[in-house]
Each structure stands twice: as structure tokens, then as C-alpha cells.
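Issue 218. Parser rejects a valid record. Input:
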Amino acid sequence: MTEAKQVFENALVDAENLMWFHEEFGGADPGKRAAYFQSLSKSAIILLCSAWESYVETIILEIVDLQISLAKEALHLPLNLQSISTVHIKAMKDDRAWLKVAGEGWRKIAREACLANLGRLHSPHTKAVSDQFNTILGVEKISEAWSWKAARNIGGRIDNLVKLRGDLAHAKSSQMSVQKLIVTQNINLIRRVVDCTDAYLVAEGFFTNPPPTARRALAAGPGRSRMRPGVS
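Output the parser choked on:
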């Protein structure tokens, strides 16, 4: 299990605890509950979406930290990480920015570049998540790894969850009703997506020495490495 997945599971405990209280005090049988049970369901949705967003950020940063630690020099970094680091340096608009990469400074710059990109992940819908994996790790469509028996429209279901979170976090919350079943289904959905993401990244060697995109960077020279789930 990756550190990011463990962080996700720990974060998910809060949402699952809310559902435990819902069932413990509201019962498990079908039927309408008192209005205050809605607060539990709505809060669980917000916590679940936050746990999903945190997983995406943490797993990418976990891999980038490993890539940086394994690289002996800046040119040994994966091409995608080199590219976003270059963009980050240019964005500084500092004539003396090159001094910051001297010695081991390039390691800090590479990590800052990763964090800057992750900082743009304001809403963890499918396209935004895929863009982060693509830009930073060179994985073109991480959503293609979200596959299991009976899986249907996974990206669309994640987008619906994120939209629901957005609606609940704003003025529409008091006008909405969220069933306990919806929360449970979404918890199961995101847990499966995290499992698939973790399994793909491990299977593709992102936690090996050196990681696949670094091997390709060394072999291919100038250019950018791209990977798609199921394509090597």
C-alpha cells in the first residue's frame, strides 16, 4: 500500500463514522429519517470528496519525491518533471533564478514545480485529475485504469460526486436532500478508484528505481514521455 492510499483510508474514517452514526441512531431499514440526519449525509459527501482530492495530490507528490530522490542530477529527472520545472523557473520572472538550481537547488525547484501544478487542482473532477497525472507524471489517461467488473461510467460518476460536493458547499445545501445510500455508493466508488489507481502506478513501476518515465528520459533524449494505462 502506498503512503497516499494509507492517508486516504485514514481520511475516509471520518466519512464512514458519520454513516455509522446515521445507521446507529437512524436505523438501517428503508424509510424517511428526521431532517437532522441530512447533516450527516451532506458532511460525509464533502469529507469523501476532500479525501479523494487529497489522495490525488498525495500520490503524485509521493512519486515525484521518489523521482527527485533517485535522480543523481537534474537531467536524470523524468522529462515531464524537467518540463514543468522549466516552466516554473520561467514563471519566476527573476533574472537570477538560475542561481536557485545550482548545486542541489534543482531538487527544490522540481518539487516546487510539482506543488505549483497541484495547487491548480481546485476541483477533483475526472478531467482535472487526468490533467495532473498527464502533466506531472506523463500518464495520459489515468481514468483508463479505473476498470473493474461491472464498472460503468466511472469518470461520469466521479464528476457527479464533485458537482454534488460543490452544490452542498454553497447556497444550494439547504434545498438539497442526500440519501444515505448515495453516500455509501460513492464511498465504495472512490475506494475502488483509489485501489485501481494505486495498483496501476505500482504495476507500471512508478515506485521502482528508476521509475519508467525516468528510464525513458534517459533513453529518448529531448522530448516528453507519455504513458497510457495498459500501454508500455
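Fixed in the parser; the record now loads. Helices lie at 3-26, 37-70, 79-92, 105-118, 126-137, 154-168, 180-203, 212-220.
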